[in-house]
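Crash report, auto-generated. Payload:
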Amino acid sequence: AQSVAQPEDQVNVAEGNPLTVKCTYSVSGNPYLFWYVQYPNRGLQFLLKYITGDNLVKGSYGFEAEFNKSQTSFHLKKPSALVSDSALYFCAVRDIGDDKIIFGKGTRLHILP
Amino acid sequence: DAGVIQSPRHEVTEMGQEVTLRCKPISGHDYLFWYRQTMMRGLELLIYFNNNVPIDDSGMPEDRFSAKMPNASFSTLKIQPSEPRDSAVYFCASRTGGTGNTIYFGEGSWLTVV
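Recovered output after restart:
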């Protein structure tokens, strides 16, 4: 069965600095990987996904993520953080051949002015 | 596109009452998922449907929970009787079939059982 781990409950970054939100996964086959963002009192919004091909995936709002098969990781990154990036971020994984998408616990990102 | 539509957005009910949450998936999407979000357990998959047929309900917490999808544009999640520990945000999400397709979430139904 697939699983996903977000080792940090909270990440604090100063505005303008680069940010990284970590994610590792476990699947039996090849993974589909996703990042979502949740703002207060809202649903989850899709940011980006890795299906196949280039390991560096670019998504919405200047975010990108790098798929690393050997480390089974899919960390979310942004070169320069904005205060408006403060939100709850979820990593998710789907195993090829499985319909279900499993989400991590979420990481709360605080961007400090 | 209107996106996934959920109702009610907020519900406060007394313990023992029946609660019905509703979802309209994005038109053309043939997969529908119900998730529950709590502080303690994060985002849990309760049940999902493919072409209106329940495929996996292993995440449904107990017999008090039931879900139906009578047609391609409507699904319900029912809790009867409700308990305070059912207080959570319930999300509906949908996607098309195919490789790696993205699921899209509704805004959620915020349930409080007192």
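Post-recovery validation: Residues 11 and 88 of chain A are 10 Å apart (CA to CA).
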